Amino acid sequence: MATDMTPKQKVEYYIKGMINRKISPYNLGLRASRGLSSATAYQTKLAVNLLIDMSKDEIDSLRSLEGFESYINKMMWFVVDLKKKQMDKNIDSSDKFGKIISEIKEQIEPIIIEQQEKIEKKILSDWKEINKEYDDLGEVEFRNKHGRKNYRRDGTYYITMSEFTRTFYGSLLKKPEKYLLREIENQKEGYKNKEHSKVNKLISNLNERYADIDNLKLINTSRSVNGIEFRMTANVGDTPLYIDTTTIYAGGYNIQRLHLRWLMHVIDKNTGKTIFSIKGQ
Q: How far is Cα 114 from Cα 50, in angstroms, rounded to an integer?
């Protein structure tokens, strides 16, 4: 392939090669799989990245080439998916949604801090508990209690601890305090990032359902037993909307289980009827 090719010529080159190798467009993917080599998956990814920035006229021109339509259609499916992921990733810095997302994150910050404190308390408690148990029982009894028996053909067995130490609780055994504190900070930061990403995802879902939604404003927040409830206003065309968002807890305070769950109801302000509901993660 010549290095001075235009993006359109490069995509044409990749697809011609796929046609010549009799690769079905329906098998195309961005990763190697059964029936799709890593080289073809890589070329598909390159083509998709080029198509993202092409004009509609250029894409239609490629689609009109003999045998190209099915390949372009499949690649454009990946283009749409990648654009959505890019939108989800950058939505909190967008001009349209950045302010409202920032305000929601500010409102849930007290809850996040509360849960981070619980995460720290739980990890410290588990660390002290497991190491005290080890000291009280001794190595042999501790191994017998938490280890896994692996039987040999003659009926004897040996005990391994690898399965237990792969659990988060097991990983705390004999962990030096400085590494424990580092782990606590990582878990707390990871929890915060996950909750922030759910705010982004919820607004992204709203934007996906109503692409022309505009003028989102946070007008009221209230603390409930389970979390924080929001009311926002917005417009879709000439239709004024209320958007009621309920935040509830789910799970316990182990970081693998606790999370905030978001429920959003889009209400026609004129009629008071719920016209759409969105469940968060």
A: 46
